[in-house]
Design a protein that fits this description.
By secondary structure, this protein is α+β, with helices and mostly antiparallel strands. It has 6 helices and 12 strands. The chain is globular and about 65 Å long. The N and C termini lie far apart (102 Å). Keywords: Signal. This is DUF2057 domain-containing protein. It holds the Pfam family DUF2057.
């Protein structure tokens, strides 16, 4: 005869385990959005991590958590060249798409309408992408050249390093903070200055650029 107490305990354990698994599954579904990338876009990196392509179908689908994301993408498609009577491969340089996932569940990243070879070549030089959710609502996205994106990462790393200088450990075992000016000079000497100047110039508004030009004029005089 089955022990009723043992049977009840086993039932309760099974119930709680099933509840925990169900809650975990629901939490993952709520916090993740499924992003589909159309077949004329090649997805290379997601948040600075390379994508393993393998045997992909025409539509590439990945899961993204809530928050900010950056995708490295290339446009690539084949069109008929009517003048030459042959197919032409059209592709863009790799570029970066940045956007924020909030409470969306289904996302689709696609190109603007490309109908022929001429429009494909124009698109390759100046890409325009559309990001929509499950109800066809467009989301805000930002496009950036890959070189500018990499430079931005370098700038962020330098700024973070300057903001948190390493602690010096002396011979006697005591710790001390380095001289701020010496530390800044050491870091700046390791940075390629010209790209950094270009980066901040692109980020500056009109007033800031005018102030900077005034500073240069005063410095030269």
């Amino acid at each position: 005869m089955t022990n009723p107490v043992r049977f009840l305990n086993n039932s309760l354990v099974s119930y709680f385990c099933a509840t925990i698994l169900l809650c975990s599954f629901v939490a993952v579904k709520v916090n993740a959005a499924s992003l589909t990338v159309t077949d004329n876009l090649v997805l290379r990196d997601v948040d600075n991590k390379a994508v393993e392509h393998g045997f992909l179908s025409k539509k590439q689908t990945i899961d993204l958590t809530q928050g900010e994301h950056a995708l490295v993408i290339q446009y690539k498609d084949v069109f008929e060249d009517l003048d030459m009577g042959e197919d032409r491969l059209v592709k863009s340089d790799y570029f970066v798409v940045k956007f924020v996932v909030t409470n969306q569940q289904e996302l689709l990243l696609s190109t603007s309408k490309i109908s022929d070879l001429a429009s494909a070549e124009r698109f390759a030089k100046n890409p325009e992408l559309i990001l929509t959710d499950e109800v066809k609502q467009e989301l805000v996205l930002e496009l950036e050249t890959l070189s500018d994106y990499k430079l931005g990462l370098q700038v962020t790393k330098v700024v973070t390093t300057l903001a948190t200088p390493a602690v010096n450990v002396q011979d006697n075992g005591t710790a001390s903070m380095p001289d701020k000016q010496d530390f800044n000079s050491q870091v700046i000497n390791k940075v390629d200055t010209v790209p950094m100047l270009k980066y901040w110039w692109q980020k500056a508004n009109k007033s800031e650029k005018e102030d900077f030009l005034n500073f240069i004029n005063k410095t030269e005089n």
